[in-house]
Amino acid sequence: MPSDRRVRVSESTISELQSRLLPPLSTRRIPHSPRQGWRELSLLVVFFRTEHLRNPRITSTSMSMTNLRRRLHHGDVDGRKSEHVDISNADSLNEPLLGKSSSDSGGSEVYDPRRQDLWDDDRKKEQLHWSFLFSNLIAQWAQWLANIIVGSGSLFGRLFPFSLDNQNSNPVYLSPLQEDRLNILRSRLQIPFDGSRVEHQDALRQLWRLAYPNRDIPPLKSELWKEMGWQGNDPSTDFRGGGLISLENLIFFARNYPSSFQALLNKVQGQRADWEYPFAVAGINISFMLIQMLDLQSSVPSSKSGVRFVELLGRDENAFDHLYCVAFRLLDAQWLVKRASYMEFNEVLKSTRTQLERELVLEDVLEVKDLPSYTMLDK
């Protein structure tokens, strides 16, 4: 019958680890490199494992045959010697993780039930101590990683823009001009499309004239509207949450960038799918996507894209309409690259939004025309 043994760690070893992992505040530093940080983390994990093994009753029967025994040799603690891990499948722990074998000390310590309470108190104190050390090392290593990210600045942001949060943590202050133009834009967002209003009917007719200048304007309910990409014979049923501004965006696109408008309307570029996206309905979805992306329904934009857009709006009162044209052209380009079909429209729209968010936060973008995707537009 194997005798009960206790795994013990010498006081000198504990002091050595404490001095390495928790130096005085005046001399505390973070790891210089990931390799050093991982080395110190590995040391602490091994010691933390030792604390779990310091049970008053550790017998050979409590060890599973499948457990891996990992031992960091005592000469490697100071980091000056090569590190290696011994792995064995022995069914009992033949030696403590850090320290000498019990056979070297000339005997073993027999468990005494009368000392159980004292041992439990000691173990609780030491576990709190090691937990404190562990949390400090994690905090130091996290600070080292944060310094690397912050120190890399905009280069890191350009290489990995998807890893950055789109929320702006700094307060936003609007100039009187920015506030006025933002309020005007928001007032446009509040107007729903109403097919019974004459001015809204005239806007639909104006869009047809710009799209098909050599054709007669059809009735407001006609199958001919499907040629423009409306889903039914009555365009007014397709606006839904897009509102009147989505129709104004299409008209602005046709007026200011007629070449790109006609190319997208008639699908003349690239190899097209058998089931293409409907042009007019896609335009409504783009308007709605931009409203969400730029956080225009909030009292003050909180996203980075929204904050940057307010800056662009201060330089150009038509910044939203120009951005709409860029977004439509970018969506069509991504549609062709992905060789998408109708059922993949939402996925392409999402990737279009992601690309716009990346371009809007670039430091050298002062107006919509500075966006890289703006170069794809033809007037």
TrEMBL record:
Renumbered residue ranges of the record's region Disordered: 88-114
Residue span(s) of domain ELMO: 199-360
Feature: compositional bias, Low complexity: 99-108
Domain of life from the UniProt record: Eukaryota
Designated name of the protein: ELMO domain-containing protein
Species: Leersia perrieri
